[in-house]
Amino acid sequence: MADPLGGPSAVPDLPTLAVPGRPQGAPVLPSPPVDAVISIQNLTKSFGSHTVLRDITFDVPRGAITAVLGPSGTGKSVLLKVIIGLLKPDNGGVYIDGELMSGLSQKDLFRIRRKFGVLFQDGALFGSMNLYENIAFPLREHTRKNEGDIRKIVHQNAELVGLMDHLRKLPGEVSGGMKKRAGLARALVLDPEIVLFDEPDSGLDPVRVAFLDELVLDVQRETGATIFIITHNISSVMRTADHLGMLYQSRLVRFAPKDEMFESHDPVIHQFLNADLAGPIGMDEMAEGNAPRREPAAVGAPSAGE
């Protein structure tokens, strides 16, 4: 079964969407910076009457680790799908190495997708294949390498993620952390220039998250790839990210180096990065900012009714 991304991380039965060129009369997007491997320009995406992403613009630096954060339901995973061309933006566009995704033919779209390796939330492994076969899958689908070369590449990446002793096991026989590592090894076998992570810490305990973070750093050092992470785990991005973007209510609040984000006085950024109750982010992500936020009680202050 062919990988719909035309790249290293295969997901069964995932449709490929046709991506037409820019309509006549549509606004011309600005050219991306030469040092941005991913450039997102004035991106808007809606589903029916609900706008998930509105006028998003930022540039992902080449060879660095970038993380995009935000409360649940703010469009982080939708952004990732637009970047790899699984969803078509309503307005604006995404440049990959200076090429506008929405202006590409199907052939060129597959060529661009070969630059990507993708680690999905659950690893997206084939349950009937052992870990070795899962990792080898993109090589057999998208290259003409012989089995000896495939074995060498699989072992090289399995060793990188610490799975050499578990390659003959099925996904149902290993832990969630091992599935993530197998998914990462599969995402790396075609030597992608860009590795995308969709909530990589989902379902993992804090210790396994810390090990995965160290693995992400190791992969970046070993390969020099650009790494783009969708997450809401603050501790994780503190360990790994060089740049952060913050989404809230369909918009990009800010994109900046990590240190600048953690020093920000913006109320949304400050509340989210400090896990504070006081601020514009509420319990209901569909109605955030509409209700007054209570200030947390001072330490030692009596509670109501005392």
Structure description:
By secondary structure, the protein is of the alpha/beta class. The chain has nine helices and ten strands. Strand 1 and strand 2 (50-61) form a beta hairpin. It is globular, with a radius of gyration of 21 Å.
**For the terminal residues, how far apart are their CA atoms?**
66 Å
Return residue spans where pLDDT drops below 50 for at least 5 consecutive residues. 1-27, 288-306
User: Total number of β-strand segments?
Assistant: 10
Biggest sheet details = 6 strands, mixed
Order of strands side by side in the largest beta sheet? 6-7-8-3-9-10
What is this structure's SSE topology?
Elements: E1 36-47, E2 50-61, E3 65-69, H1 76-83, E4 91-96, E5 99-100, H2 106-113, E6 116-119, H3 131-142, H4 147-160, H5 176-188, E7 194-198, H6 206-223, E8 226-230, H7 234-240, E9 243-248, E10 251-257, H8 258-262, H9 267-273
Outline of the structure:
With 306 residues, this protein is of the alpha/beta class. It has helices at residues 76-83, 106-113, 131-142, 147-160, 176-188, 206-223, 234-240, 258-262, 267-273, and strands at residues 36-47, 50-61, 65-69, 91-96, 99-100, 116-119, 194-198, 226-230, 243-248, 251-257.
Write out key terms for the chains shown:
9 helices; 10 strands; alpha/beta; disordered N terminus; six-stranded mixed beta sheet; 30% helix; four-stranded antiparallel beta sheet; 306 residues
